[in-house]
Amino acid sequence: MRIGRAAGVTDTGRRRLRNEDAFICEPPLFAVADGMGGARAGEVAARLAAGVLEEAGVETKGEQGVTAMIIEANRRIWERALADPATAGMGTTVTAALVDTDSGAVAIGHVGDSRAYLLRAGSLEQLTTDHSLVAELVSSGVLTPEEAERHPQRSAITRALGTEPEVDVEVFTITGEPGDLYLICSDGLPTMLADSAVAAALEAADRDPAVAAEALVAAANRQGGEDNITVVLFELAEGEPPAHEPAAIVPEPVVDDPVPQERELEPEPEVSPASLSRHGAGAGGRLAALAFIVAAVVIAGLVLYWGISK
Ligand code: MG
């Protein structure tokens, strides 16, 4: 087994001023974190979580490894929140997948309401169960899934990283198969798009992770883009991992705090870099650029017309 193509995209969406999601797309590790908290604390929490996971790198294996790195991320966020009153109460979700290419096992660790899905043999299955108020109300029969989708408290989560000194990590293993396509996303995707629409977009993109990730973000924005949207996709393929794999993660010098304090005092950039990995301008950024070009062309035309008519 080997990890095939992979891609990650994050986007602020159409309603939020900041992007408080972060993601990792560093084979064999893939993860999404969706931060929460006042001021810029949510962004700090999500970036701390992503930073800890990235540091853990290839040393980590299996369910125990995934659990250990999520517990470490919890400790780091909790301690930061204690030390810095501006970030008190911050937290983040995390959903992480760690692939063992030798065994084909995909270990998934999960806290909160970011999700992992698997597209296998044409059907999309939600692998994680949200740690959310509405998910609990659905499982106890108080709400139907349809009512949960419209519930005003649908974004309230019952487990988070960094809000308590201890965290309860849900962890399980999927036996991977060649052709599997895994999707990890923040709630900004499923709150905007039904699972059937997600599956259709993956198939329409011919299961190409890069194309599909962009298409999913664009589709969520077309539906309103009410939250930050983050999508990480990777596929499993037949064959041996290339000799240089898994070398995607080069351990960097250990930086205790990947989010320097003074960064939070800077004036807020229009588009905040939410991801420690790759990210683009996103659909919103491209739309703004297109609008700017169209406006410039129209103004130039008017000036030219005015010049000629004189
Ligand atoms: Mg969210």
Short structural description:
By secondary structure, this protein is an alpha+beta fold. It is built from 7 helices and 11 strands. Magnesium ion binds at residues 34, 186-188, 227-228.
Describe this structure in words.
Strands 2, 3, 4, 5, 6 and 9 form a 6-stranded antiparallel beta sheet that branches. The protein has 2 domains: 2-279, PPM-type phosphatase domain (Phosphatase 2c, domain 1, 4-Layer Sandwich), CATH 3.60.40.10; 281-310. The radius of gyration is 20 Å and the shape is globular. The longest helix has 28 residues, at 282-309. The protein contains 7 helices and 11 strands. Helix content is 33%, strand content 23%. The chain has 310 residues and is α+β, with helices and mostly antiparallel strands. Residues 34, 186-188, 227-228 line the site of magnesium ion.
